[in-house]
Design a protein that fits this description.
- By secondary structure, the protein is of the alpha+beta class.
- 22% of the residues lie in helices and 25% in strands.
- Helix 5 runs antiparallel to helix 7.
- The longest helix has 44 residues.
- The chain is flat.
- The termini are far apart.
């Protein structure tokens, strides 16, 4: 097992380091053995080319680190190799500002819609290079339109409406461009069973009844692109309907030939539109097997006398094959199909970039409007695409579209709702992750879909450092000239390994390695902290670049020293070979013991209040009843005033509980007597802590004093006279009591008299009221009768 580990460490350390090496920073764990390898790791990695940079036990790969770490490790800035990428614009013609009604008539190749046209990018691994690409839709840009029509029998009425399409479409397109050309082609189906009837009569006239139809064909180029609308009308008028047996048509064969036969169709490097008109579905790759055709479509032009001659030989093209050829030839497709087949062709549209679908009326009467609308839809959107990228190269897009609208990701490739004359821009970033395996130059192209213009980008890769050009082959600084001394280190020849290329991969001797890599003939190789390479210990690298193994046998490190407060060496020293080297004024195994005494000073200026010693910046109280940062707290002690009351009383007034033991117990302070309270020291007059006390003796007399410690001397200032309360005056007290009793008696008499008066008045009022209510009865005698009788004459009327 030991031999196996040793061989692995020796033979593969150049490429990937020891299997036991812990993960480190991205630069360190790459285990780069040369400056060229180092700069391929990441853009943040640099290589120290200082010949004397490495310490004992460090491998060549330690020269590769992030820039800040190299500086902290005392590599001079001038010795750090850190090449950067660049952008150079080789061709930068401005976009064309052209008016349709202008007098300047430019050729298509003189019109520029994309800027710049050519760049050279120098790429370093991990460092993206970003440039801006502008696109502007030129006004009056030339258009080539090829009308490809299904001439199966179901399209008979459509053919009648297309016969005048040339001149009518020319007239409408004049509103868009003054340089417009139109062409015409037709298709039916492969001329084999079961797509058509191969009987002699049906080959001459495939239609039934009295219909006069032309012989079936796969694809025919009727009219090459021309600016003569009358010629279009004349040739289309001569076309006849044909027929086939099945419903799907062979339109894909026709589209392929239109796309790849540039010369026969007459395509220019302008906007290319292909209008595909049908009322049926389509055959695609694999359907040819029904007719015994198994060879895949080769994607080449096979037109002879404007007729596709290989329909019976090659299968229909696949959708992906069509997409590739249409894109390669910058052709934008417009599918003009009937309502019935809209869903099918909309799905097809989603697979073909820069294509549109329009609803064709049953007799194609709306074909012109359909073409105009589809063209406006296609031309209002620009989508960038690029060819295949070299391995390890990536590209990202960010669009800045109309009104400042930004897009990223897939939306970063395109801008919509662009009108003629609008200018949009794209931020394009290209990044390489490694150098190409073969050569150092690659070319990629970016272009808008459906346009012939493109941006050519030449990619150069930084695969080595500048200092490598000054290397010394077979240098004497490398063991017996077995390497090239470059960038401060030996780059070993094939078959050699080691820091100085001192070992051969074929001559590794285990016993020699063991002997040179064991400390004091111990059992641990490189103290289990490194790998033995060519008899020399190469120490492991840590994930933290600041943590380093060192020493001839990797026996030292700078991170395994004692810690305090979770800090290495308490944060007050440095770790060297597992021992703390403390800063000034600190000591201890973890540099956690401070020699400063300022943290032990109490408010009174004494160290630990005179009750302890200062050790490692902290007070250690000698009396266990005291505690606190400066031994100022005593939870079980009485207050200062109560503590010294008896001694002050016995020494100042020869009284109190310690009167008999005063000299023995109370001689620990210096007593000073003053006349009055105002003569006592005040807190604002002192530079040391002072306590004011007020205590009472057994006779209820108060005495005032202060207690302080000054220069280790305890001082007590006391007012020499007791403050005793005066005795009471008896006469005023007795007189006051008698007077009070008399006054209270008088007050009670007055209150009684007042209540009696109120009661009498109420009784008299009640009597008067009853007197007023007494009255004699005035009724008549019931037995009395009057002597007078009055009689009234009933007939008397008062006359």
């Amino acid at each position: 097992m030991a031999l196996w580990l040793l061989l692995i460490a020796t033979l593969s350390s150049v490429l990937c380091g020891s299997w036991a090496q812990q993960e480190g920073s991205i630069c360190i764990k790459a285990n780069a053995q040369s400056c060229g390898e180092c700069i391929q790791v990441a853009e943040t990695c640099g290589w120290c080319a200082d010949e004397n940079f490495l310490t004992v036990g460090e491998s060549k790969s330690a020269r590769c680190d992030d820039l800040e770490s190299l500086k902290k490790r005392n590599c001079a800035v001038t010795k750090i190799e850190n090449p950067r990428g660049s952008i150079n614009i080789d061709k930068n013609n401005p976009v064309t500002n052209r008016k349709k009604d202008g007098s300047d008539k430019l050729k298509p190749e003189q019109i520029t819609q994309i800027q710049p046209q050519k760049l050279t990018l120098t790429l370093r691994s991990g460092e993206p290079q970003t440039f801006e690409l502008k696109f502007k839709r030129a006004e009056d840009y030339p258009i080539d339109l090829y009308y490809l029509m299904d001439l199966s029998f179901s399209m008979k009425d459509d053919l009648e409406n297309v016969k005048n399409l040339g001149t009518d479409l020319m007239k409408e397109m004049q509103e868009i461009t003054s340089d417009f050309r139109i062409g015409f082609g037709s298709f039916v189906e492969k001329t084999v069973m079961p797509y058509i009837s191969t009987t002699p009569a049906r080959l001459i006239n495939p239609c039934t009844g009295n219909q006069n139809c032309t012989s079936p064909f796969s694809y025919k180029n009727v009219l090459k692109l021309t600016d003569k609308g009358d010629e279009f009308n004349r040739l289309v008028s001569q076309q006849q309907i044909s027929g086939n047996l099945d419903s799907p048509e062979g339109g894909f064969d026709a589209i392929m030939q239109v796309a790849v036969c540039e010369n026969q169709i007459g395509w220019r490097n302008v906007t290319r539109l292909l209008v595909f008109s049908t009322d049926a579905g389509f055959h695609f790759a694999g359907d040819g097997k029904l007719g015994g055709i198994v060879l895949p479509n080769d994607g080449r032009c096979h037109l002879e006398n404007n007729m596709y001659t290989m329909s019976h030989y090659y299968d229909y093209p696949s959708i992906a094959h069509l997409v590739q050829k249409l894109s390669d030839n910058n052709i934008q497709t417009i599918f003009a199909v009937t309502e019935e087949f809209q869903p099918v062709y909309k799905e097809l549209k989603n697979l073909i970039p820069k294509s549109a679908v329009g609803t064709l009326s049953s007799n194609s009467s709306n074909v012109i409007k359909l073409i105009i609308d589809a063209y406006n839809s296609l031309s209002s959107e620009v989508i960038l695409e690029n060819n295949r990228l070299p391995e390890g190269v990536s590209i990202t897009y960010k669009s800045i579209c109309k009104n400042g609208v930004e897009g990223t990701g897939e939306n970063g490739r395109k801008c919509s709702n662009i009108s003629i004359g609008d200018e949009v821009s794209f931020k394009i970033s290209i990044e390489s992750q490694k150098c190409p395996a073969i050569g150092k130059t690659e070319v990629i192209k970016i272009k808008p879909q459906g346009f012939t213009e493109e941006v050519q980008i030449v990619l150069n890769f930084i695969c080595d450092c500048q200092c490598a050009t000054k290397g010394e082959p077979n240098s004497d600084k490398c063991y017996e000239g077995n390497g090239t001394f470059e960038c401060g280190a030996c780059k070993c020849n094939e078959g050699r390994i080691g820091r100085l290329c001192e070992c051969s991969k074929d001559e590794v001797r285990t016993e020699d390695l063991d002997a040179n890599c064991r400390k004091d003939n111990g059992t641990d190789i490189c103290s289990n902290n490194g790998d033995c390479v060519c008899g020399t210990c190469e120490c492991k690298k840590r994930e933290n670049p600041a943590e380093i193994y060192s020493g001839k046998y990797c026996e030292c490190d700078n991170f395994n020293c004692d810690r305090s407060n979770n800090k290495l060496c308490g944060g007050h020293g440095r770790c060297e070979c597992r021992k703390c080297i403390c800063d000034a004024n600190y000591t201890g195994s973890a540099c956690d013991c401070s020699l400063e005494t300022s943290t032990c000073l109490a408010k009174n200026g004494q160290i630990c209040n005179g009750r302890g010693t200062c050790e490692c910046g902290l007070c250690k109280c000698t009396n266990p009843k005291f505690q606190g940062p400066t031994c100022e707290i005593c939870p079980t002690c009485p207050g200062v005033c109560a503590e010294h009351k008896d001694c002050v009383q016995c020494r100042a007034f020869e009284a109190g509980e310690k009167k008999d033991t005063c000299k023995r117990d109370c001689s620990y302070f210096h007593l000073i007597k003053v006349q009055d309270r105002n003569s006592l020291p005040q807190p604002t007059d002192q530079s040391f802590p002072l306590t004011h006390c007020k205590e009472r003796d057994a006779n209820d007399c108060w005495f005032y004093y202060t207690y302080a410690i000054r220069n280790d001397t305890k001082e007590v200032y006391v007012m020499e006279h007791l403050d005793c309360p005066a005795g009471p005056d008896i006469i005023p007290i007795v007189a006051g009591v008698v007077a009070g009793i008399v006054l209270i008696g008088l007050a009670l008499l007055l209150i009684w008299k007042l209540l009696m008066i109120i009661h009498d008045r109420r009784e008299f009022a009640k009597f008067e009221k009853e007197k007023m209510n007494a009255k004699w009865d005035t009724g008549e005698n019931p037995i009395y009768k009057s002597a007078v009788t009055t009689v009234v004459n009933p007939k008397y009327e008062g006359k």
